[in-house]
Write a structure and sequence with these properties.
Elements (H helix, E strand, L loop, with lengths): L2 E8 L7 E7 L6 E10 L2 H7 L9 E2 L4 E8 L11 E4 L9 H4 L7 H9 L9 E2 L5 E4 L9 E5 L3 E4 L5 H22 L6 E5 L3 H12 L4 E6 L2 H10 L3 E4 L5 H8 L5 E6 L4 H9 L1 E9 L14 H5 L3 E4 L7 H13 L9 E5 L4 H9 L5 E5 L1
Parallel strand pairs: 4-8, 11-12, 11-14, 12-13, 14-15, 15-16, 17-18
Antiparallel strand pairs: 1-2, 1-4, 2-7, 3-5, 3-9, 3-18, 5-6, 6-10, 7-8
Length: about 375
């Protein structure tokens, strides 16, 4: 039986999200319905809102969240009614070559859901008041108070763990910390520079602290974000409004550049800055999502003469169904900072205000709390 929910629907790029009642269809085989408790206000959704990343519309965005299982479809085995879950915004099939090689973030099923806005079977589970279908985002659509999604898009967690913390882990934390540990393999005692200190950048800083980097240089254009970075473990700070951040990073590293650099904004300019600020033999990791047509002007000779590496990292290059639970344990053990990450919470009807605050650089991370 269908359920009705309040949702933030995007009908057209560069227009505000519209809060309206939507019909949520029941789960089919291998699917679940989740009643949302918290959803992250992440810049990745804004790329769709701004038109930088094309998606079919209307669509319900939101990919970072947590909630309670409200219904299960035929054949579902990993969760049952009443279970608490973290959403997995890159659901994986477990069978394709990427899943078999331990890289589920690259799974073809998750990729297809991201670009088509449908369930794996090509159908939809949302309708608006006119009876028209509404697309899904990343298979989960966390900006709906109730959402139907594949079983592969949820991971069961202990009921004592807070929904707010669970939502934070689901994207920003796992992406940032994972990029340090799984993609870059940052070593103890190394030097690190992080360009962009939003929700993901702060968790790159946190990841570098966790593995014992001796120097962590935070770069941003907002002093407020640099102060957040200090809380998470940054040792040096560069406001890019005050001069060339590449030269500043080199000045702080004896003229050599950082052994590991991370780009967590998503522009060709900042990717080039991160690459240019990388030491000989070092590694530059791109984590930020760019506009589809963006290009980075890098000196390709440095790939050879300086033996630099330039790589990307999606979802922290993790195995989300395992690594999300590891991060929960790390927080419970006092190693992973989460409380300090959450700056503000908003009700769903203030979601446009939440994104305005994000764009003004006022928050480390904010949540929609249902």
């Amino acid at each position: 039986m269908s359920t009705f929910a309040q949702a933030a629907v995007l009908y057209e790029a560069r227009q505000p999200l519209r809060i309206e009642e939507v019909e949520v269809l029941p789960p089919g085989p291998g699917e679940v319905t989740v009643r949302m408790k918290a959803a992250g206000v992440c810049h990745s959704d804004y790329h769709v809102m701004s038109g930088d990343l094309g998606m079919p519309m209307p669509i319900i965005l939101g990919h970072e969240g947590s909630g309670v299982i409200e219904a299960v479809g035929e054949g579902v085995k990993s969760v049952e009614l009443g279970d608490h879950v973290i959403l997995v915004w890159r659901g994986s099939c477990g069978r394709c070559e990427y899943c078999a090689n331990g890289r589920p973030a690259l799974c073809e099923m998750g990729t297809a859901m991201r670009f088509t806005g449908t369930m794996p079977d090509g159908t939809l589970r949302f309708r608006n008041g006119a009876g028209d279908g509404i697309r899904h985002y990343a298979g989960v659509s966390a900006f709906s108070s109730v959402s139907t999604m594949p079983e592969a898009s949820v991971v069961k967690i202990d009921k004592t763990f807070s929904f707010e913390k669970a939502a934070l882990i689901g994207c920003g934390v796992i992406t940032g910390v994972g990029a340090v540990i799984n993609a870059a393999h940052v070593t103890y005692g190394s030097t690190v520079a992080v360009i962009g200190c939003g929700g993901i950048g702060l968790n790159i800083v946190q990841g570098a602290r966790l593995v014992g980097a001796r120097q962590i240089i935070a770069v941003d254009i907002y002093d407020s974000k640099l102060e957040y970075a200090r809380t998470f473990g940054a040792t040096h700070f560069v406001n890019a409004r005050n001069g060339d951040p590449v030269q500043a990073i080199k000045d702080l590293t004896g003229g050599k550049g950082a052994e590991f650099t991370f780009e967590a904004i998503g522009t060709g300019e900042t990717i080039a800055q991160a690459y240019d600020a990388t030491k000989k033999g070092g590694k530059c990791v791109v984590v930020g999502i760019s506009r589809a047509a963006d290009r980075a002007p890098i000196n390709v000779n440095q790939l050879v003469y300086a033996e630099k590496s330039l790589i990307g990292s999606l979802y922290g290059t993790t195995r989300p169904r395992l690594d999300l639970l590891t991060l929960v344990d790390m927080h419970n053990e006092g190693r992973l900072m989460l409380d300090e990450l959450l700056t503000r919470t908003y009700p769903l009807d203030q979601i446009n205000e939440a994104y305005a605050a994000l764009l003004r650089g006022e928050v480390a991370r904010s949540l929609i709390v249902f």
